[in-house]
């Protein structure tokens, strides 16, 4: 089913053009046009190959022009095609048109980017599987089951006086729980997309003023500005570590203060997003206030509790209490416990980094699955059918955002702006 968007439509009036091969000198280059005027614009151009809609990648008339990979020659051809009426394509616009015209869904569209950036056989295999619909199929089945349950719940609420075989609350809860377990199973088959270079990612996360930035500096040998004033970190910082193994370490704003607005709210959103997409979360708390860790833990990633400023905690009894929670005791100021923390990172990320996954989920996809799981979890425990129906709608919205069935303009901009030209 073709989709529509203000960025384009299933019957776009524009024809776009871009270089489809990497820029720079090469033996051969491919220039691609897509749109209703592709055949006419490319008429008479040597090396042009025409494929008619809808049997093309974009489901539009598509022309590929093969020529020697001389940058001046390629630039001259692109200028000529634009002069004939083509518009330079935006990043990812060919794949966007394939999505808008129903050739692929959003999961498959994002798999194109993963395929291009794959740095190993495992990542390549996962991207190819997702491009072929390996992840889209389970998501579609989840959506179908959730739609059936939501429809039954809505009918029970809309027509309570009718003599119909409607879903009782207990049955709705049970079915929501079954769907929740299916989402969990899908996540269990998935691994995060790696950072550039294929490094696993560890994210520092926790309340403000727990010493995360000081710990970031101590582990990374960095010099990020630190302050005793809470909330001074705003953006996500990153550093590549080589010990105990090659990994990427992230530092972000503190979370959980409540009432955040403006830049502070955006900083907290980015911190949670970074933690959600990490292979491992280092939940950093102040040794004098470690109980605050409990309600703030992010969903979906393994968590290692790191109790910082342990040099300020006197007595063996307190330290034994931390150890009972399998916490790592460190002091970013004195260096105490840093080597033990590095060893824990090596154990946990070494296993994570070597473990494969049937699917590779980017941060957006992981967050959407987690949102769907949380909504279904609430529906499975709902006190009434009305509340269950609300949570079922929230789960449907999360899955619709994942598949692109209900993708808004902002989401499409965010997804396709990461693509390179010509894809």
Describe the structure.
- It is a single chain.
- This protein is of the alpha/beta class.
- The chain folds into 3 domains: about 90 residues, Probable tRNA modification gtpase trme, domain 1 (Gyrase A, domain 2), CATH 3.30.1360.120; about 120 residues, tRNA modification GTPase MnmE domain 2 (Four Helix Bundle (Hemerythrin (Met), subunit A)), CATH 1.20.120; about 160 residues, Rossmann fold (3-Layer(aba) Sandwich).
- Helices cover about 45% and strands about 15% of the residues.
- The protein is built from 14 helices and 13 strands.
- The chain has a 6-stranded mixed sheet, sandwiched between helices. Strands 3-4-2-1-5 form a 5-stranded mixed sheet, with helices on one face. Strands 6-13 form a two-stranded parallel ribbon.
- A hairpin with a 6-residue loop joins strand 1 and strand 2.
- Helix 4 packs antiparallel against helix 5 and helix 12 packs antiparallel against helix 13.
- The protein starts with 15 loop residues before the first strand and ends in a 7-residue tail after the last helix.
């Amino acid at each position: 089913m073709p989709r529509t968007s203000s960025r384009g439509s299933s019957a776009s009036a524009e024809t776009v053009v871009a270089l489809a091969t990497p820029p720079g000198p090469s033996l051969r280059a491919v220039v691609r046009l897509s749109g209703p005027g592709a055949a006419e614009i490319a008429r008479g151009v040597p090396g042009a190959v025409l494929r008619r809609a809808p049997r093309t990648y974009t489901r539009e008339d598509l022309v590929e022009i093969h020529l020697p990979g001389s940058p001046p020659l390629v630039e001259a051809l692109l200028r000529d095609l634009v002069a004939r009426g083509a518009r330079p394509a935006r990043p990812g616009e060919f794949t966007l048109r394939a999505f808008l015209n129903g050739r692929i869904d959003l999961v498959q569209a994002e798999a194109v980017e993963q395929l291009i950036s794959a740095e190993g056989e495992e990542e390549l295999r996962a991207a190819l599987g997702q491009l072929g619909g390996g992840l889209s199929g389970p998501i579609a089945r989840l959506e179908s089951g959730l739609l059936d349950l939501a429809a039954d719940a809505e009918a029970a609420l809309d027509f309570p006086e009718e003599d119909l075989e409607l879903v009782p609350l207990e049955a709705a809860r049970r079915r929501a729980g079954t769907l929740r377990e299916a989402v969990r199973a899908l996540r269990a088959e998935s691994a995060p997309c790696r950072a550039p270079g294929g490094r696993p990612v560890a994210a520092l996360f926790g309340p403000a003023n727990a010493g995360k930035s000081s710990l970031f500096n101590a582990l990374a040998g960095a010099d990020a500005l630190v302050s005793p004033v809470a909330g001074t970190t705003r953006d996500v910082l990153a550093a590549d570590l080589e010990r105990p193994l090659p990994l990427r370490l992230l530092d972000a704003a503190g979370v959980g203060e409540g009432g955040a607005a403006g830049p502070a709210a955006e900083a907290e959103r980015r911190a949670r997003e970074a933690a959600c997409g990490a292979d491992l979360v280092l939940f950093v708390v102040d040794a004098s206030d470690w109980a605050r860790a409990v309600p703030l833990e992010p969903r979906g990633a393994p968590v290692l509790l790191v109790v910082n400023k342990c040099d300020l905690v006197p007595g063996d009894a307190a330290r034994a209490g931390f150890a009972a929670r399998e916490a790592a005791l460190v002091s970013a100021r004195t260096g105490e416990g840093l080597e033990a923390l590095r060893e824990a990172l090596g154990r946990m990320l070494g296993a994570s980094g070597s473990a494969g996954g049937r699917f590779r989920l980017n941060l957006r996809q992981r967050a959407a699955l987690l949102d769907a799981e949380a909504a279904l979890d609430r529906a499975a425990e709902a006190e009434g059918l009305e509340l269950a129906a609300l949570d079922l709608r929230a789960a449907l919205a999360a899955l619709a955002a994942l598949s692109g069935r209900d993708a808004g303009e902002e989401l499409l901009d965010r997804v396709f702006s990461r693509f390179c030209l010509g894809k």
